[in-house]
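Entry type: protein chain
Record version: 2
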Amino acid sequence: MLAYAAGDAGAFDRLYARHRGGVYRYLLRHVGNAATADELFQDVWMNAIRARATYAPTAKFSTWIYTLARHRLVDHWRSRGNVRVDSLDDDCDGETGALVDAIPGSRVDEPETRVESRATRERIDAAVAELPPAQRDAFLLHIESGMSLADIAALTGAGEETVKSRVRYAYAKLRAALGDLA
């Protein structure tokens, strides 16, 4: 980003190429609508472009761009009246779990596999959408950006142990909802 601020347009292209997929999926999984995700995605990157002159590297670029994305999501939810504050106790339901297994399609070009993959993706998206908002946010930041729990805690303003619990409970709920896919 510093190179981009100094006039290297190629530096922005490299940042965009590296982070566009994760940022887009993060937004899409939160809003569940491609058109809305596209709009938010464009806003995030336009904000990044506008901020090039004032960008200060206080954290990794990935943390900064996901902070922009998260703030844009909050603005979107506020404008729609969908902002809700949850108690930290809502995350603690006693479940424990492990990671959701990745489900690769082995015959991606076959029609049956494509239908199965689409159905699986829809089930995963629905299961993620059912997570409580705080758990979903922590889970998506962890999965899509590869952020550490400490980085997520700094971004969200929650304690690191709280973030750890949110991610763990999200995995447990996804495992319960999608266990037959393993």
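Comment: Residues 3 and 11 are 6 Å apart (CA to CA).
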